[in-house]
Amino acid sequence: MFLCSRYDGACAALLLGAAVALSAQEITHSAPMIERYGKPYVMVTVNGKGPYRFVIDTGTGADAFVSPELADELHLPAFAEAVVRDPSLQGGDRVPMVLLESIEVAGVQFPWVKAIRHAVTGEAGSCQGMLGFTLFRDYLLTLDFPNRQVVLSGGGLKPDGEKTVLPFHMPDGVPITSLRVNGKSVEAQLDSGGGGLTLPVSLAAHQKWDVPPVVFATGHTMATRFEIKAARLASNVKVGKYTFVHPVVEIHPAFPLVNFGSPPMQSFAITFDQKNLLVRLGASQDHLQLTIPPSPTRLTSQPEPGPPPPHLVPLS
Q1: Which has the minimum average pLDDT: 5-19, 57-71, 119-133, 293-307?
Q2: pTM of the model
Q3: CATH code (residue 26)
Q4: How distant is the alpha carbon of residue 303 from its chain centre?
């Protein structure tokens, strides 16, 4: 995750044209979501070759990343540079960009995609690239975690009084909405590549706990190394009409905002509408549980970590 058609008669023609437009708008494309440690992966083809395994990361404000190995395999020359920075805002790195003739996912082809050449970490096995949030600007993107499906469709979302449909804004190409922590409204980044429900240190300092914060992992960015803590809140977190009851949260200094990662997304079919800046969350129940994330948070741009110190014990 980073901070990058005619028939005889005019009336008949008009009716047919309207029908064609409507049917095109209603067409949906779907593909299996390959879920690993809570993260959504999908198989794609690049320049007609593959398939390759890519992670969908709504916390990445770029169209795509490709691994150096895949860029070399497909003989993709660099044509420009981009600056990549991590959520801590303390570091940056200049990296090459490559141009992809096409990326195809769920039967939808995206032509001439600018991609960043950079190492991409997969939580389980190899991962050849990443699909960022802005790639899906012209579609409704649904990450249906319960049914393990990625869905692309036309149309748009409509507000419902912020029960299940919430407004968002997207500075730097990343969706940010509001949720409530212990009754206080705070901004949260919706990050399918994120490892948990993460609170910034400044917000965590004002919370009460059922289980107080303990160190359970260490993290790295391009600029810093820090401790990741986990704790169980003595209060609830609400997003729209949904309530996470005394959830387990992560605390670390890499995020200036609340980060709503893939583990809290697991209960939802979550649909993003970038044209109308709306997101819809659908779950089978209104009250939800959130336990310890399946793996520690790993920032895409972090160096490869060494083994954790032996005295650190995961929160049970």
Answers
A1: 5-19
A2: 0.83
A3: 2.40.70.10
A4: 20
